[in-house]
Amino acid sequence: MKIVITSNGTTLQSEVDPRFARASYFIVYDVDNDSHEVVDNAQSADAVHGAGPQAAENISRTGAKVLITGNCGPNAFRVLGAAGIEVYTGFSGTVFEAINAFKKGELKKSSGASVKGHW
Amino acid sequence: MIISIASGKGGTGKTFLATNLAKIMESQGVQVLDCDVEEPDDHLFLKPRIKETINVGIPIPDVDEDICIHCGKCSQVCVYHAITDVGAKVLVFPQMCHGCGACKIVCPVDAITEIDHIVGIIEKGRSGDINFSAGKMNIKEVAAPHLIRKVKEHIKPDVISLIDAPPGTTCPTVTAVSNTDYCILVTEPTPFGLNDLKLAVEMVSQMGVPTGVVINRVGIGDNKVETYCREEGLEILLKIPHRREIAEIYARGEIVIEELPDIRNLLQGLADRLPGLIEEVTRV
């Protein structure tokens, strides 16, 4: 299973980016074989309009079923929900720590957006 | 003759000028179009009898999931990301949609039809002999320019049209001021008034709309607005004094010129000059 973690850098030691749609990078991590790839999110991060839905659509195209981030707005949350992606907000720390916390089942699933739009 | 009344800074007196000028011009045949659709307030002073209310909508996509093949083309073409295809479902965000119809055009299987998403209303009526139209945007909506364009469709060619524009220098203001014969910029003699006047002057000059300045609340602040106008060759059409009794009458929702003869004379002077001013700029 693939999980996506928002990141401000390109390695597992990078900090989790507290913003979802305007995060610098997405780390797409496959928990089945412990491999990962880096997706540059510049397209959404610099979008004038609709960064949330666009970023959420891009995540859904990676095939990931889980998103770990700091905050997620209402439009993005709606798209992620429709795509069947579980959202875990409120994480701070490195991407590596986020992956471990998820594997150990320490994260709590979000039931709604953690911030308003245009946060 | 279409006159827009705009300002960079909010709260300088656009509504005051529009409503009081309309009262002065009432016998000549005048209409007021309140295009400050996010916070229309001309009705508070003119107290029009509303005879007609028109819904204004934007055409947004409605996707038939039974026909949709989830190719994602609608999502790719939308620069506003108002339509998103996540594979299992297509989501539409009405507030982000500009109603351009591109998604419907690119859909290869005709799964998209357009439905009206109501963004606001236009109220039409009369206040004495003043013809009145006002746009009111619904809460949560953002499509102010669309609603303003719809309000401007009610411009009557046979009367003087006064357009009360939204403050600022962004799309709603540009939409309200565009294609008007003359723009009156209302400002106040303060650093804020001056800063935002400069932005507004830059806006109207790029739009090619001739403009003059009304300085309201003269007596506060400094004289830098006047100096700026002189240096830029901008005509100061009128200076309205800063007086407590003006504010008191206005705060009661009443028409200032009906109670203060000297203010009536000031605005009458402007009303008398406007046709000539516009003739002058159109000749040049």
The helix count of chain B comes to 10
**CATH hierarchy class name of the largest domain in chain B:** Alpha Beta
Oligomer type = heterodimer
Cα(first) to Cα(last) distance of chain A is: 30 Å
Q: State the fourth-level CATH superfamily of chain A.
A: Dinitrogenase iron-molybdenum cofactor biosynthesis domain
Task: Give a verbal description of the structure.
The complex is a heterodimer of chains A (119) and B (284). With 119 residues, chain A is of the alpha/beta class. Chain A has helices at 42-45, 51-61, 74-82, 95-103, and strands spanning 2-7, 25-30, 35-40, 66-68, 86-88. Chain A has a single domain (2-103), classed as 2-Layer Sandwich (Nucleotidyltransferase, domain 5), CATH 3.30.420. Helix content of chain A is 28%, strand content 20%. A five-stranded mixed β-sheet of chain A has the order 3-2-1-4-5, sandwiched between helices. In chain A, helix 2 packs parallel to helix 3. The model of chain A has no long low-confidence stretch (mean pLDDT 91). Chain B is of the alpha/beta class and 284 residues long. Chain B folds into two domains: 2-53 and 121-283, P-loop containing nucleotide triphosphate hydrolases (Rossmann fold, 3-Layer(aba) Sandwich), CATH 3.40.50; 65-110, Alpha-Beta Plaits. Chain B is built from ten helices and eleven strands. Chain B has helices spanning 14-25, 42-46, 73-77, 102-106, 144-152, 171-177, 191-207, 224-232, 244-251, 261-283; strands at 2-6, 30-34, 49-63, 83-85, 90-92, 112-127, 130-137, 160-164, 182-187, 211-218, 235-241. Chain B has a nine-stranded mixed β-sheet with strand order 3-6-7-2-8-1-9-10-11, sandwiched between helices. In chain B, strands 4-5 form a two-stranded antiparallel sheet. In chain B, helix 1 crosses helix 10 and helix 5 (144-152) runs parallel beside helix 6 (171-177). Chain B is elongated and about 70 Å long. The A-B interface holds A 47, 49-54, 56-57, 60-61, 75, 78-79, 82-84 and B 75, 78-82, 84-89, 91, 93, 96.
